[in-house]
Design brief:
This protein is mainly β. 13% of the residues lie in helices and 41% in strands.
Length: 136
Amino acid sequence: MKKRNADRKNLVLYLDILPDRGDEPLGKCINISLTGIMLVTRNDVELDLDKKFRLRLKLPIAGDFNGGHLPLTLNLKWKREDANPEYVCYGGEFVGLSKKSKDIVEKLSHYFAFSNNKNISELVDLSDYVIDVEEE
């Protein structure tokens, strides 16, 4: 298998990966580069390797992003177990990424990549991610 040396950025905010049609997420994008992504799925989600998938990356509502979806075609190149046995990691390569899509991917990787200089609460309004739990 050919090893790619793309500058992948691990994301501080995992983004939903959705099928081309439908709203049930397949998994989460956990890192991204201009050549592809790594996504994590539950181990009961089975995706075929070396097959092109039309997917959508759910964009955040933060910074320069106003939500929505980025349509992508991805060729899954590898699969491995995650550290948590309930999940599986897949590595995929973008197919035919447009200039506009490349610009969005570059912004995502720059804006949401782990950095010693960033605090996630400065990037995203975390109140959208807080779950209220009533005390019994």
